[in-house]
Design brief:
- This protein has about 170 residues and is of the alpha+beta class.
- The protein has one domain (about 40-165).
- The chain has one helix spanning about 15-65; strands at about 80-85, 85-90, 95-100, 100-105, 110-115, 120-125, 140-150, 150-160, 160-165, 165.
- The strands form three sheets. A five-stranded antiparallel sheet has the order 1-2-3-4-5, with helices on one face. The chain has a three-stranded antiparallel sheet with strand order 6-7-8, with helices on one face.
- The protein is rod-shaped and about 115 Å long.
- The termini are far apart.
């Protein structure tokens, strides 16, 4: 039996250098794409978090306005103080913009509802939906709300559940 010597083949220095150069070129071409994707991901996460935060604040605000307490007089709602940037109800609940933070007082507990708010606006309307009732908030039956945070603006409307003669 004849044994032939095994031929061993290894990379030459030139082949290794060419491989490293090619990998470097590929990495240089992919690096901007990877950084761009990371930037877009970070931006989309920030936008999603802002939209979720503002949507939660809007949902909570509209629920609070829908559940406005019954006023002392017949056919009225229990609003103690009405302002463009806040409302105080006769049962002690309160919603207002304090600097850039939308604040909520419920059951005697004051807590931030949404931070980094640029605009918080409540408009108060009578049954017809056109006549402003900010000067006589007890007659309010419809509210419109605008919340702006960052580049995100959300608008909503709510009708008071209490009507003439009690809750409906």
């Amino acid at each position: 039996m004849k044994h032939e010597p095994m031929q061993s083949r290894a990379f030459t220095l030139v082949e290794l250098t060419v491989t490293v150069v090619v990998m470097g070129i590929v990495a240089a071409l992919l690096l901007p794409v990877i950084h761009g994707a990371a930037d877009v991901y970070g931006s989309s996460v920030g936008t999603r978090l802002t939209s979720e935060r503002v949507a939660y604040a809007m949902e909570r605000t509209l629920r609070l306005l829908r559940d406005v307490p019954l006023g002392a007089a017949d056919a009225t709602v229990g609003i103690s103080t009405a302002a463009v940037d806040g409302v105080t109800f006769s049962d002690g609940r309160r919603l207002w913009l304090d600097g850039g933070t939308l604040m909520l007082t419920d059951s005697g507990v004051e807590a931030p509802l949404c931070r980094e708010v640029q605009v918080f606006e409540i408009k108060y309307y009578s049954d017809d939906g056109r006549t402003s009732t900010i000067s006589s908030p007890g007659t309010t039956q419809r509210f419109t709300v605008t919340i702006t945070s960052g580049n995100y603006e959300l608008r909503g409307a709510a009708f008071a559940r209490v009507r003439a003669g009690g809750a409906s």
